[in-house]
Amino acid sequence: MTDGSEKYWYNLKTGEVEKGFESPAPDRAGPFDTPEEAAKAPEVIRERSKAWADEEAREDSWGTGSVSEDPGADQ
Question: Of 9-13, 32-36, 56-60, where does mean pLDDT reach its minimum?
């Protein structure tokens, strides 16, 4: 198992892909196996944030019927 120094990271401040621990941890997203995956980090973060927000909205409205369920959302 690697400690992450051989992985790729997306620098949230500069928008650059980095290999290893070049930037402070709060400025990095990752790790990723390839630089191409790291470059897609903003898109991945947006998608995961939306999914988490949708899940939280479903949990918050459980039993109220105020949020419509999307049967294809979990695919």
Answer: 56-60
DSSP string, 20-57: SS-S-GGGEEEEESSHHHHHTHHHHHHHHHHHHHHHHH
| Sign of the dihedral defined by the CA atoms of residues 5, 23, 45, 61, in that order | positive
Q: Which residues pair with 32 in a beta bridge?
A: 8
Nearest 5°: CA angle at 35, between 26 and 25? 10
Q: In this structure, are residues 9 and 23 in contact, taking their beta carbons and an 8 Å threshold?
A: yes
Alpha carbon 2 to its chain's center:
21
Task: Give the pLDDT confidence of 18-39 residue by residue, as tens digits.
Answer: 999 999 999 999 999 999 999 9
